[in-house]
Amino acid sequence: MKSGKSWAWVTFILGAAYFFIPLIATMEFSMRMKRGEYSFEAYRVVLGDPRFQESFTFSVVAAVFTIILGVLLVVPTAYWIRLRLPQLRPVVEFVTLLPLVIPAIVIVFGYIRMYGSNSPLPFLSSDIGTSALLVIGYATLALPYMYRAVDTGLRTIDVRTLTEAAQILGAGWTTIISRVILPNVLIAVLSGAFLTFAIVIGEFTMASLLNRPAFGPYLQNIGANRAYEPAALAIIAFVITWGCMSVIQVLSRFAPKSANRPN
């Protein structure tokens, strides 16, 4: 028994070292921009760069619209599948897994071919249309995570009973989804939203090929031309991503723990 615990601690320590040592080394290197002393000069340069501010703002706005689109698409779909079409759940789950299998570069090249300037829907002929297409692409990439987060939330509530009670009180389908179902799965939706935010902030392929001023291409451009600033940006991106993950962990504590009720 003691041997098993010892191996567990050894595995944990090795895993922690594998994770934290490169992170600490990156942090240490990012603070060596001034010769002979440690400083946050690289972070000051990065945060003061107008391109950083513009690209980060663009990605944050894109993430907000992606989250809104994902919620509008996923919540009604997952709700209806659980309520009326449970036999289609395997098909829907398979479809939502496709973005994990199909590379982003394949998806974006399909968009370019389908929505180019000669297309009946020429999204790419304007900046607004291209940005809208990028948001749709982001929503596609985030679909597996958003759908599973919402579906997990729906499993914790009695969907059929809540729906029948709302209908008895005269509520329509829009009211049921927006004022009954959504508040009950809000924690799950927020978890999916923070995962979506983390994906959008670091995404490179779609933003680069669609020529959008997003944070991912900015990271790549700085990494190709600077020394210390890329390390600082890596730490900043890490803090943002793990900040989102931490919020998800905090929110999960407020989610219902057991509701395996028949639907």
Automatic annotation (TrEMBL):
Keywords: Cell inner membrane, Cell membrane, Membrane, Transmembrane, Transmembrane helix, Transport. The chain crosses the membrane at residues 7-25, 56-79, 91-116, 128-147, 185-210, 230-251. It is a multi-pass membrane protein. It holds the Pfam family BPD_transp_1. The keyword Electron transport does not apply. Residues 52-251 form the ABC transmembrane type-1 domain. CDD domains: TM_PBP2 (cd06261). It is found in: Cell inner membrane; Cell membrane. Its main location: membrane. Belongs to the binding-protein-dependent transport system permease family. PANTHER family: INNER MEMBRANE ABC TRANSPORTER PERMEASE PROTEIN YDCV (PTHR43357:SF4). This is ABC transporter permease.
